[in-house]
Amino acid sequence: MILNHLWGLYAHPKEEWHTIDARHESFRYSMIHIMLVALIPSICAYYSAVHLGWSIGVGDKIFLTAESAMMLSVAMYIALIVGVFVLGLLAHWMAHTFGSEPTYTQTLELASYTSTPLFMVGFAALYPELWFVMMVGLAGLAYSVYLLYVGVPILMHIPEERGFIYASSVVTCGLILLVSVMAATAILWSSGFGPAFTH
């Protein structure tokens, strides 16, 4: 039951958003959904980095040590969960500007279900070719944005025109969060917390 909206968001997203809106689940439900789905990219990235090796073009595959890959996977898992919670918080903060009065749980639902396709991209790491993961990642990002634009007017109970601007603001916040995480990663790696490779 935890992932009962997953198929609906792919098969019939508009109807599924109406279902989500009709029976808002608890904060705990949204939290469990996020924690389960965020495991996908973390576990797949760990497995591919240690056992399959990443191919980034010409040359040998790149492998990480098990300890280094575990550290990165745990950090990724935490960053994904925190990112969704912060996005929900920003969406809640912005909602009042657009004439909506949602609870934080509602905006967390919006953030968690729209980020689900991005998390599902983690399965692409089981075929660790950079070009393939990037293509699947772009498709996942596009579908997440589509879900957001479809879901905002339904879940926030605002007109579609206003919902478009609101959804665009949420997308902007999401991109800023992504860039912030990438910048923090680059700073940590240059400070000596980079991954350890095997030969």
UniProtKB/TrEMBL annotation:
Cross-referenced Pfam families: Yip1
Compartments in which it is found: Membrane
Keywords assigned: Membrane, Transmembrane, Transmembrane helix
Annotated ranges, domain Yip1: 7-180
Topology of the protein relative to the lipid bilayer: Multi-pass membrane protein
Transmembrane segments: 32-54, 74-95, 132-152, 164-189
Protein name: YIP1 family protein
Organism: Alishewanella tabrizica
Source species taxonomy: Bacteria, Pseudomonadati, Pseudomonadota, Gammaproteobacteria, Alteromonadales
